[in-house]
Amino acid sequence: MSILTVTPQRRGRAIAMTPAEINAFLASERTCRVASLSAQGLPHVTALWFVWDGKALWLNSLVRSRRWADLRTNPAVSILVDTGHDFAELRGVELSGHAEPVGEVPRVGLAEPTLTEPEQLFARKYAGLDAVPHDGRHAWLRITPSRIVSWDYRKRAR
């Protein structure tokens, strides 16, 4: 897993995560919130499992979903991964970029070298397996972030 380059944040520098902390956080968390816009400009937010490969966030999405339709019309996306119960525990990463389909749509399992790593990461993270079963209803979206903002309020106590 590579260490990413993050543009320094002007506000919240004291609580921003380092690139290594961002990588570790995104590798360990399981659920993200995906925000997209419809062709009519209506926002839509959904929770989804994801994997992070150190450079891009990968989503395995139903191709017959509002999210998929929105992202095909307008690939701009904002993704939030966060955790914490009390204020002093809050941590999160917001990634902004464009969603790009990779491989077959829908995915039935044809060889696609670009998907080898994200599919292995996904299978291990969510099922403890070495391979993702393909159901012909899902496909992969890659989001290479153009902007990353992070926060870790636990740092305020340090």
Structure description:
- The structure is a single chain.
- The chain is of the alpha+beta class.
- It has helices at residues 19-28, 66-73, 116-127, and strands spanning 31-37, 43-52, 57-62, 76-83, 91-102, 138-152.
- Strands 1-2-3-6-5-4 form a 6-stranded antiparallel β-barrel.
- A hairpin with a 7-residue loop joins strand 4 (76-83) and strand 5 (91-102).
- It is globular, with a radius of gyration of 16 Å.
Put the structure in a nutshell.
The protein has 158 residues and is an alpha+beta fold. The chain has helices at residues 19-28, 66-73, 116-127, and strands at residues 31-37, 43-52, 57-62, 76-83, 91-102, 138-152.
Largest sheet: 6 strands, antiparallel, barrel
Identify the overall geometry: globular
The SSE order reads HEEEHEEHE
Radius of gyration: 16 Å
Number of strands: 6
User: Uncertain runs with pLDDT below 50, 5 residues or more?
Assistant: none
Helical content stands at 10-25%
Record keyword descriptors for this entry:
single chain, alpha+beta, 37% strand
Task: Indicate the topology.
Elements: H1 19-28, E1 31-37, E2 43-52, E3 57-62, H2 66-73, E4 76-83, E5 91-102, H3 116-127, E6 138-152
